[in-house]
Design goal:
The structure is a homodimer of 340-residue chains. By secondary structure, chain A is of the alpha/beta class. Chain A is built from 14 helices and 12 strands. Chain A folds into 3 domains: 7-50, lambda repressor-like DNA-binding domains (434 Repressor (Amino-terminal Domain)); 64-165 and 297-324, 3-Layer(aba) Sandwich (Rossmann fold), CATH 3.40.50.2300; 167-295, Response regulator (Rossmann fold), CATH 3.40.50.2300. Chain A has a 6-stranded parallel β-sheet with strand order 2-1-3-4-5-11, with helices on both faces. The structure holds a DNA duplex (30 and 30 nucleotides).
DNA sequence: AAATAACTTGAAAGCGCTTCCAAGCTCGGC
DNA sequence: GCCGAGCTTGGAAGCGCTTTCAAGTTATTT
């Protein structure tokens, strides 16, 4: 195997100095065209590739951004949210020639190790998915100088840059839709109340109910954690209170709820209408197909990267905060007459 | 913001040379206990963290392994396979203090860019998921000197190190189970025939059928691509040929097939028995719950990393090749009397 | 034609760390 | 009390690249 080429080799072969070779390599000005071409020639012929680590050390940028995914709940496997988000992020990184470094936090140990590894020069920036991960980590991140963007709204950090979707409005619209269809006893199975997504979606539910002048009935609110199984059990607890409609904090929980409903020999939407949240592929394939709230997850990921790169270039002030709108997708599970 | 500490600062403060400080930092021998302690003290007090890039440049190892996921089919989102695999890999990497760099190949462009970026010193090793990605890429990888492990059996590279599951045996057992239950017309919806998983699972189907002395009926074999929708359409094409059982190349396709069956007013397993492949969470929650083949995906990911690290340490010869066994999980969709 | 501006180029100083090498020590054995 | 073995230690040479600075060239201005 032939010895790896260095920029010095290229410089020697093209009969210029290393500095000039570097200029050509990086497409910098102040090189005569003739020389520039000569150097390119040598680079092409030899198949030379610059050594990324050396380059990083000298330039103080690595071209790597971190993607931190919090303590892996079952949700990571079940929920297509993460793959979608990751895909949006990866797509945009590829486009801008950045590389992604993935940190799946699984153990307490991982979490401890994380900050030190992240804070010290390997990464140009970090995208953190909010979740079960301690605010403490986000604290540290924001204190530090490394550019960061939060995916989802961080609970106690109004000054952080983040991208989020308007969960309150989304949930509000979902519940309002049910109310307008004539449902009288609309219940909800919330997502994980340790996340802003869970909290906000419950808030949207409350606002819609109150907007119609209906008193909030605590028995009609049960807490889940975004997983199918929590939707299933949530629904079982709800059934004795005779809801005629349920808004669930995720499609996955909606699937669980439907399972429980069918098992109780009731049917969707005749006996109980359902509206989910996410509009990921399974929603369309459910039986009945799910009425749900669509989030632009892909754009979400794209934007997160764009913001991060902006921060890397231009500094973290002012905070960039973007909230995406959601869209109600009406299918059959809500019993709407216009169902597809 | 305080200037970043360097090893020189530590050395100065501890009144030793940089060489000695480095020895202490890396827990190397040949340092007097007293000195070692003094240096540690300074490191602790100052909160010094070594600069990973500088360290990589000097030591010629980065502690980063690449994870390459091929051209992203719809499957990446739908199929919990990838999250599970990723999780197994991440877990093991965390444990060994390696960092994962994720490469999702999405465009032709990405694929072109990939090899150059990978081949040149940023990564200590690479795990490649086989799939729609050109063998050409795996070719290049194997030619080069960078340690690599393939997840799944690469089609034309018997000399590669890989981890795989015994797809042929798995499929064989699935189909044999159906035959033993008395099914007479067992069909199959295969996975993507561009993958060894797809090919091998069909092969297993064929072997089981032939083993029972039944002639292969081409009409009972349709090709899908692991997605729900391909299972749905596949089943629709199968229905006119009156199968009484179907083995699908993935659980996701099984869900699609069930949807098509129900839509034709037939029922599972009474009219048509189904066996899937994967045993991921949705299988358990399907209605009816899916009889399927369980693959140890998590261990699969773990092993891939272990092999890779082994290669990094000890060289790529001889090739490490590991094939995991699968397990038939009997639930209700096959109509077995012992269904849960 | 002289003076000045603008562009090219290479030498050299890092970036922060690892590691080889040689020098200086300590200590036991005879 | 002397010698060599075996530790400790620091100096210095990289790892491969970027970037500053000053010197050398060429083009422009008056």
């Amino acid at each position: 195997m032939k010895k790896n080429l260095t920029l010095d080799d290229i410089a020697a072969q093209a009969d210029v100095s290393r500095a000039t070779a570097s200029r050509v390599l990086n497409d910098r000005p102040h090189v005569r065209d003739e020389v520039r071409e000569r150097v390119w020639q040598v680079i092409q012929e030899t198949g030379y590739k610059p050594h990324p680590v050396a380059r990083s050390l000298a330039s103080q940028r690595t071209g790597i951004v971190g993607l931190v995914i919090p303590r892996t709940t079952e949700g990571f496997f079940t929920d297509p949210y993460f793959p979608h988000l990751t895909q949006g992020i990866a797509y945009t990184c590829n486009e801008h020639d950045y590389i992604i470094s993935l940190f799946l936090i699984q153990t307490q140990e991982d979490e401890r190790k994380l900050y030190p590894r992240i804070s010290q020069g390997l990464l140009d920036g970090v995208i953190v998915q909010v979740g079960a991960i301690g605010d403490q980590f986000i604290d540290a991140l924001l204190q530090g100088s490394i550019p960061s963007v939060v995916a989802g709204r961080p609970q106690h950090h109004p000054e952080a840059s983040y991208v989020d979707v308007d969960n309150i409005a989304g949930a509000y619209n979902a519940v309002m839709h049910l109310l307008q269809l004539g449902c009288k006893r609309v219940a909800t199975i919330t997502g994980d109340m340790g996340t802003t997504a869970g909290l906000d979606r419950e808030e949207g539910y409350r606002r819609a109910i109150e907007k119609r002048g209906i008193p909030i009935e605590p028995d009609l609110i049960v807490h889940g954690d975004f997983t199918e199984i929590s939707g299933y059990y949530g629904m079982q607890r709800l059934l004795p209170h005779k809801p005629d409609a349920v808004f669930t904090g995720s499609d996955t929980m909606a699937m669980g709820a439907i399972r429980a409903i069918k098992q109780a020999d009731l049917s969707v939407p005749e006996d109980i209408a359902i509206v989910g949240y996410d509009d990921l592929p399974p929603a369309r394939m459910a039986s009945p197909p799910l009425t749900t709230i669509r989030q632009p997850i892909h754009r979400f990921g794209v934007k997160a990267v764009e913001i991060l790169l902006d921060i890397i270039e231009n500094g973290k002030e002012p905070p960039r905060q973007i909230v995406f709108d959601t869209k109600l997708i009406v299918r059959e599970s809500c019993g709407s007459s216009v169902g597809t």
